[in-house]
Amino acid sequence: MAIERTFSIIKPDATERNLTGAVNAVIEKAGLRIVAQKRIRMTRGQAETFYAVHKARPFFGELVEFMTSGPVVVQVLEGEGAILKYRDVMGATDPSKAAEGTIRKLYAKSIGENSVHGSDAPETAVVEIAQFFAGNEIVG
Ligand code: UDP
Q1: 116 CA → ligand 1 middle, Å
Q2: How far apart are CA 124 and CA 48, in angstroms?
Q3: From residue 136, how far is each of 41, 72, 122, 130, 140 by CA, in Å?
Q4: How many Å lie between the centroid of ligand 1 and the Cα of residue 93?
Q5: Over the stretch 38-84, which tens digit does the pLDDT of each residue have?
Q6: Which residue has the least CA distance to atom 15 on ligand 1?
Q7: Which fold has domain 1-41+70-135?
Q8: ipTM
Q9: Would the pLDDT of 1 be above 90?
């Protein structure tokens, strides 16, 4: 399998509970390398752009509120099949359906406040990484 890069966000519910290191430990244990990372406060505009695909969904407003409610940690993860691997490591969107040992099973509070984001495909990974990182901020 090819070496890929995926985009990750440690969401406000996790930063609020000081879980950045705990989430990173699960990521690194799974064999993914954190090749870029920064803690930011997302603006409303950034959150609306990032989740534009969900604009028509009933939870969109709440999601934007949540993602701008506190600091997030944006990351680029690298490794063999990183996109699917990180989706596995994250677990299902709804933590009550997430498998044992996944980040969401361990730490998520609800289907909305679910601790992490990870890109769902190579095309979205490229777009999402470019929204938050310049090329020279990623050190593989
Ligand atoms: N979300 C929500 N309510 C829902 C479904 C999703 O608040 O019923 C939020 C949740 O934070 C989720 C994000 O919207 O992570 C994006 O949803 P998606 O279906 O893309 O899930 P993901 O790819 O994050 O697992």
Answers
A1: 10
A2: 15
A3: 21, 21, 20, 11, 10
A4: 6
A5: 999 999 999 999 999 999 999 999 999 999 999 999 999 999 999 99
A6: 93
A7: Alpha-Beta Plaits (3.30.70)
A8: 0.98
A9: no
